[in-house]
Each structure stands twice: as structure tokens, then as C-alpha cells.
Automatic annotation (TrEMBL):
Keyword Transferase: yes
Annotated GO biological process: acetate metabolic process
Keywords: Hydrolase, Transferase
One GO molecular-function entry: acetate CoA-transferase activity
Presence of keyword Transferase: yes
Annotated SUPFAM superfamilies: NagB/RpiA/CoA transferase-like (SSF100950)
Protein name: Acetyl-CoA hydrolase/transferase C-terminal domain-containing protein
Pfam families assigned: AcetylCoA_hyd_C
Annotated ranges, domain Acetyl-CoA hydrolase/transferase C-terminal: 478-641
Gene3D superfamilies: 4-hydroxybutyrate coenzyme like domains, Acetyl-CoA hydrolase/transferase C-terminal domain, Glutaconate Coenzyme A-transferase
């Protein structure tokens, strides 16, 4: 049903798509020929335990449960099912899911003093933690429970043997097909609800990504329909697109409406952005083309990229100044001229991303995320070429006819299409002999005859093209501010944000490849990786020994799409270095024992030291490009490895300019933009208060000091260095009145660290 993009297929711009007069077919609700669950209509329940009991009875004690990734899990219901199975060893529970979001658990006493009050405030002291996830992490999962995740919360399960053994390596985009034959008999999901004239309507909200595809794949595989349980969450944003499933008759079997059991939506805290992340974001922002398409993930690197794009739009002179200070003579250049730019956005960009996160909210508010796409090839081409605008004017009827938007002869489907996009008024109808317009005038149903186009022109001039979208996504995850924004969208802001099946976001649907490629023109797929090799391979999800940090997600599909579309690029962002047990280590290796993206799909890499364009380049050129964005401390070692592998000439010498790739030089280049406030620590605000922000800086300094080989020297100095009084901070850490020797030592350390970081940051 869907085309899996592969770099060896022809460029998609050359593939013949659907006839230009017809729009993209809209997604349909999954349908079974007969009701397999044994239930007639939707059963409405208000009791959590009653719902869990009915699920257990329906599955005869052998539950194979599918739950959405991330935000869409009904934690309390899953916990109720888990507890019942644990209490009855004869029952079995198998869970298929991903991204089991967990509230962080502080480690040391110092961490607890800082983190616990914040966590209780941010997530709620009664947030329902997923009990199966806690058991997995602690190595205490019962024998009659198994959990198969295809994506972990980053680093959460590195030390869990059972989680590592039961991990399933899947492309996010292919999950539905692979789960269809696993015997899933229950599907549970948080949903949004809204009253309409004909009754309640439902939205899959933040997670239409896999649910609908899974049900379709199961039906196609001949599997019985699973029991579909919708758990109403009043704060879940009611989102459009595939997510809006209407009355859901025939889709849901049980709707659980238990307000007392509602969980708080899991909101990610907004964190700080440092020099390295801002440098990467500034470099990456120059690769985005006005009028193009954007895909981004989540985290500080994405925040830095979004902030840089907003500076490019709103404070362009200062933005260029920051780039000049960062890049020097490398400012601009052929790569940016061909693929990106530095100027403010005029046309704006379109978002097509598996994840909808805070960055898209900020870009929409900034007037950048405004390019609209319409699921109609002829109309989209007319708009993209500039032949027409979103507001039609006199003379556009002839243009629309010449571009194939207006067909020569209209039938009922063709007229409905024109009404759907607002091209002609809804009052138009077909009558014997022609097309009747709202004022009663009738034109012959041959738009190439007589004055038909002139008559139609008088009725369309001044009309606005409608039905476009500015963003499509598969799932949502972000801050509390994002959820509020999504829940309060109105008009086109709401209708133009479509939550879709992940197969529509991450792949090009067979039969409409040309339309899908037109919509995603000049696409830039920004993702992060942990490690890259000098020959262009990337490791993004696992360590060399095979332990999984997170998962592949949709990264492969983005990279493959970038190679399959004529004008797209894949951009992998990474820090040039990291610290491992206090030791500085390069993230650019000669070889690495795990690969997520193979070297034959190499494209663009960005570190804090610049951009490396690897697509179509020789191995020698790739090595040189990666050396240019590598930290200077590790360049000589890579050169030796490359020469030994016959990838560099034995007489190769490192250019002097590359020796400036050091943290000290980077800080110097970034200093003006940082101290002026152009690049603030928290570009989009913080969930921490002012006292907590001061403490975060101090505690981060303490932690980094303890990780460095000679960090204890600084810690001892902090103990004996008199600190300036910060009563609010000490009170926040419950150290204002230390009682024990341990508390007195902690108080001295925190006070010294507060002084040190205050002096450093002013």
C-alpha cells in the first residue's frame, strides 16, 4: 500500500502520479466485514477497575496489549491491568509499545533536594508512573509479563537486562505491519472528546500515528479485530486530520470516562541551550530554504535550530553578525547559496514531521510556518509556481484553466473538488446543459467555449483558497505550553494542523508520489545522532556493544526520503565531543561498532565547528569534510587512521584553520551573542523559577567537576571558599539550617558553587 523510499529508485520528480485533476484520497476509518469483538456498539464505562476486569475477561486471561508511544498511554488503566495479571500467575500480559515516559528519579541526596520539589510541582505528586516500566528498570518484571518496546526513553533501559533482551528493533514507520501478526487482542489509548450537534465526537489527539495503520494491517492479515478501548482525557487536545475519527462507531468498543482517574499530561521541562548547541543550531539554520519543508525532532539542538530560524526572520542583522563571528570567512558559501539561505522568510515553510513539538508552535507564532499545501497536484503546482496566490484575483479563471485546476468539463466529483478548495462558491451546481452559479447564471459545461471563463472569473475573484495545511505530524510531545496551544487552536490554525498516520508522514504513498513530492519541496530533515564516522556512517540509537539507548524511530525513513526527493537534504546534527567518566572523547570516530545510518546514505553533518557536505563525495573528500568539523584534539588521530586505511594521501597535512576547532575558541566566538542576550540560556522560557535556575548552574558545575580528573581540587576549594549569601537558594535546598556534618558539607559545597557560577556568568 505504501512505497518504501529507497535511494536506488528513480528520483520521485520523474514518477508519474495521479491525474492532476484529482486530490489525495483521504484516510478512511479501518473497517472489518463483521464485528469480531462480540460487542454491539460502544460500551460506555465510568469505572477503571470494571474496565480492567472486562478486558481480562475478553482476553480469557491472555492479554496482548498494544498502547501508543509517548503521551497517548492511559497509565492508570495499564497499571490496573498490570496489577491484576501480577496478582494472578495463571494470567499472561504482553505489552507492545514504545517510549514509556517516566518521571525522573533523583539519585543522590543532593539531587533529591533539588529535583523532588520541582518534579512534584511539574508532574504532580500523584502522577501515575507506569508500573511495568519501573519493574523493568529494577529487574523485577514478573515472569508472566513481557514488554516489547521499539523505542526507549533515551538511556532509561541501558542497565535493564530484560528490557534489552525484549527490545524489538523496528523502523517506527513499519511498526503497524510488524505488529499485525503478533496476536494483539487489546488496544488502549487516551482520546479527546468534543460535543457536536449529533453527539460526542472523538479525536485520537496526540497519537493517530500507529493506531489506524495497525487496525488496517490486522484486518488485511485476516486477524480478528482487537478490543479497542478509548480513555477520555479532557485536557487532551482535539486535533484534526486522521486523528479526528468522528463518532468512532465501529472503531471503539469501550469508552472509559473516569474523570477521577485522569492523569496529568506528561510535559517535558524546557531546558537550557549551551554554546555548543547554539553553534550547531546557527550553522543548521542556514540550510533551510524559504518556501521549503521542515522536519525536526526534540531536544536542545532542535531548540537551538528553531531559535536561530526565528532570529533569521525577526533580527536578521544580528543573526548575520552571530554567523559571521562563528563562521568567519566560511560565512555563506556555495553550499548555503544552493541549498539554504540567510534572508528572512517571505513564502515561509511547511512542516511535515513525525513529531509535533514546541519548535513548530514557536515557528507558527513567528510567522515562519505559513506555507500551505493542498492535496491536489494541479492546484499545488499553480500555487508553488506563483501563477496564483491564496487569494484569487480577476483573470485567475483563465490561469486556473491553463494550469489544469479547472477542467474543461465538470462532473459532480470535479465540482465538489472545486468547492472543497474554495475555488467556486458552495452554491454552484450542475444542471442540464451547464453549471449554475449562485446568482442563477448558467454557463455551458465546456469551459473552453464562449465566455464561460469570463463569467466564472466574476464569481471567483476575491475568493480565498481553503483546505490547506501548514503542518502534518504523527504524534505530539512537548511542554505544557505546547499542549495548551494545541488545545486552544481555532479556525485555520486548528484545521491546518493535521495529525496523520505515521505512514503518511514518513513515507510517500504509492500512486500519489508526485503530489507528495510537490508538497515536500526543498525538504530539510534535521535529526540528531550520537556518533558519526569519518566516512559518513552514523550511530543514533545504540552503543557498540549492542545495548539500545533509544531506538531507530523514523530516522532511516527521513534519510531515505532525503535521497529519494529531488531537492531534499538529510542533516544529522551532533556535538563534536562528549565527556566519558571525565575524559574528553570525540564523537567523530574512524570506525564504530554499531550503525544506524550506513555510509552509502551519507549526506550532511553539522557540529559546532561547521557543516560537512558528504553527498556524492569520494571517501577522501568525506574524510576531509569531517576533519574540518572535528574537534582539533582528535584530528591527528583520525588522519593517522585514514592514511593507514588508504583513504588519505600519506603526505596529507591538516590546514592551520582547522586547529581553531576548540571549545575555548568557540566560547570566544559566541561570547558577544551570548552576553548581549541574543542567545539566552532559555530561549523559550523555563519551567524552573529564578532560584532554581541559579541552583541548576551551580549543581551542574559541581557535577562536571566531579567527572573531571582533577575536579576534586575545585570541589575542595569550594568547601573552603567563603560564598556570598543566597538565602533563597539554600532554603530551596533545605540547607539553610544544616544540622548534621553531612548537611554542613553539602551546604558549603552548594554555597561555593553558587559563588563560582555567579562570578562566571555575572
Amino acid at each position: 500500500m505504501f512505497l518504501r523510499p529507497d535511494p536506488i529508485i528513480p528520483k520521485l520528480g520523474a514518477v508519474v502520479g495521479i491525474d492532476a485533476q484529482f486530490p489525495r484520497p483521504r484516510s478512511r476509518m479501518p473497517q472489518w466485514d463483521s464485528v469480531e469483538t462480540g460487542m454491539q456498539g460502544i460500551r460506555q464505562l465510568v469505572d477503571l477497575e470494571d474496565c480492567a476486569e472486562r478486558i481480562l475477561q475478553h482476553c480469557a486471561g491472555n492479554i496482548v496489549l498494544a498502547a501508543p508511544l509517548g503521551l497517548g498511554k492511559p497509565n492508570r488503566l495499564i497499571n490496573a491491568i498490570y496489577r491484576r495479571v501480577v496478582a494472578e500467575p495463571s494470567c499472561r500480559l504482553t505489552i507492545h509499545t514504545a517510549l514509556s515516559l517516566e518521571v525522573p528519579r533523583p539519585g543522590s541526596d543532593l539531587e533529591r533536594r533539588f529535583a523532588q520539589p520541582f518534579l512534584d510541582r511539574h508532574f504532580g505528586s500523584d502522577y501515575p508512573r507506569l508500573e511495568y516500566a519501573a519493574a523493568m528498570r529494577a529487574g523485577q518484571l514478573p515472569a508472566n509479563v513481557r514488554v516489547h518496546e521499539f523505542y526507549f526513553q533515551s538511556g532509561a533501559m541501558l542497565s535493564s537486562p530484560v528490557a534489552q533482551r525484549d527490545y524489538v528493533s523496528l523502523n517506527y514507520t513499519e511498526v503497524a505491519g510488524d505488529l499485525a501478526t503478533q496476536g494483539v487482542n487489546v488496544l488502549v489509548q487516551l482520546v479527546a472528546r468534543r460535543a457536536r450537534e449529533d453527539g460526542w465526537c472523538y479525536s485520537l489527539g496526540c497519537n493517530p500515528d500507529v493506531t489506524l495503520d495497525l487496525l488496517d494491517r490486522m484486518r488485511e492479515a485476516g486477524a480478528p479485530k482487537p478490543l479497542v478501548v478509548a480513555v477520555v482525557h479532557e485536557a487532551m487536545p482535539f486535533l484534526s486530520g486522521d486523528a479526528d475519527v468522528g463518532s468512532a462507531e465501529g472503531l471503539f468498543d469501550i469508552v472509559l470516562d473516569a474523570p477521577a482517574e485522569t492523569q496529568k499530561l506528561f510535559a517535558l521541562p524546557r531546558n537550557a541551550v549551551d554554546d555548543v548547541e547554539y553553534a550547531i543550531g546557527l550553522h543548521a539554520s542556514t540550510l533551510v530554504r524559504d518556501g521549503g519543508t521542515l522536519q525536526i525532532g526534540i531536544g536542545a539542538l532542535s531548540d537551538a535550530l528553531v531559535h536561530a530560524l526565528m532570529l533569521r526572520q525577526q533580527r536578521n542583522g544580528e543573526y548575520r553578525g552571530a554567523l559571521t563571528a562563528l563562521q568567519g570567512k566560511r560565512f555563506g558559501g556555495p553550499l548555503v547559496e544552493r541549498w539554504g539561505g540567510h534572508d528572512p522568510f517571505v513564502t515561509g515553510i511547511y512542516g511535515s514531521s513525525e513529531m509535533v513539538m514546541d519548535g513548530f508552535m514557536h515557528l507558527r507564532r513567528a510567522g515562519i510556518l505559513v506555507r500551505q499545501v493542498h492535496d491536489d497536484l494541479a492546484l499545488q503546482r499553480a500555487l508553488d509556481s506563483g501563477a496564483i496566490g491564496l487569494r484569487l484575483k480577476s483573470g485567475d479563471a483563465a490561469v486556473l484553466r491553463s494550469k489544469g485546476v479547472l477542467p474543461r468539463h465538470l462532473d459532480s466529483a470535479g465540482l465538489a473538488r472545486l468547492v472543497r478548495f474554495g475555488i467556486v462558491p458552495a452554491g454552484c451546481r450542475l444542471v442540464d446543459g451547464g453549471l449554475q452559479l449562485p446568482d442563477g447564471a448558467i454557463v455551458a459545461n465546456d469551459l473552453d467555449a464562449g465566455d464561460a471563463l469570463e463569467v466564472i472569473d466574476r464569481h471567483i475573484a476575491g475568493r480565498s483558497i481553503i483546505g490547506g495545511r501548514y503542518l502534518q505530524g504523527g504524534f505530539c510531545l512537548g511542554s505544557a505550553e505546547l499542549y495548551r496551544w494545541l488545545a486552544n487552536l481555532q479556525g485555520h490554525d486548528h484545521a491546518g494542523l493535521e495529525m496523520c498516520r505515521i505512514s503518511e508522514v514518513n513515507l510517500l504513498q504509492r500512486g500519489i508520489e508526485t503530489l507528495a513530492a510537490e508538497e515536500r519541496r526543498d525538504a530539510r530533515f534535521f535529526n540528531t545522532c550520537m556518533v558519526a564516522t569519518a566516512l559518513g556512517a552514523a550511530a543514533s540509537d545504540a552503543l557498540e556493544d549492542g545495548r539500545v539507548v533509544s531506538g531507530v524511530g523514523g530516522q532511516y525513513n527521513f534519510v531515505a526520503l532525503a535521497h529519494g526527493l529531488d531537492d531534499a537534504r538529510s542533516v544529522l546534527m551532533l556535538r563534536a565531543t562528549r565527556r566519558v567518566k571525565g575524559r574528553l572523547t570525540s564523537n567523530i570516530h574512524w570506525t564504530y561498532g554499531h550503525t544506524t545510518i550506513p555510509r552509502h546514505l551519507r549526506d550532511v553533518y553539522v557540529t559546532e565547528y561547521g557543516i560537512a557536505d558528504l553527498r556524492g563525495k569520494t571517501d577522501e573528500d568525506c574524510v576531509k569534510a569531517m576533519l574540518a568539523i572535528c574537534d582539533a584534539h582528535f584530528q591527528a588521530g583520525l588522519v593517522r587512521d585514514a592514511i593507514a586505511a588508504r583513504k588519505l594521501s600519506p603526505d596529507f597535512t591538516l590546514p592551520e584553520a582547522w586547529s581553531g576547532n576548540t571549545a575555548e575558541n568557540l566560547a570566544r566566538r559566541m561570547r558577544a551573542a551570548r552576553t548581549s542576550g541574543l542567545l539566552p540560556d532559555y530561549p523559550f522560557g523555563s519551567d524552573f523559577d529564578a532560584v532554581e535556575i541559579r541552583l541548576l548552574a551551580a549543581l551542574s558545575w559541581l557535577k562536571s567537576g566531579l567527572e573531571r580528573p582533577r575536579g576534586w581540587t575545585a570541589m575542595i576549594a569550594a568547601l573552603f571558599r567563603p560564598g556570598q549569601r543566597d538565602p533563597a537558594a539554600m532554603q530551596r535546598m533545605q540547607l539553610a539550617d544544616p544540622r548534621s556534618l553531612r548537611e554542613r558539607l553539602m551546604a558549603r559545597l552548594v554555597a561555593g558553587a553558587l559563588t563560582r557560577t555567579r562570578e562566571r556568568h555575572g
